[in-house]
Amino acid sequence: YREVTARFPVRGNLVPDAHLAALLRQHGVGRLYTVDRDFRKFDFLEVADPFE
Predict the structure, then answer these.
(1) Which parts of 1-52 fold into alpha helices (H)?
(2) What is the pTM of this model?
């Protein structure tokens, strides 16, 4: 989590997204299906819209 928040400025509604992104990174997950566009800020995640 510290590494993620050091690389990406997070505050407000982005805090829980950063926590989830850090957990995904820690467990080797590189792709996330979501309609939440905020996850696109994390360059180590490939974000895909499940409805497209």
Answers:
(1) 2-7, 14-26
(2) 0.86
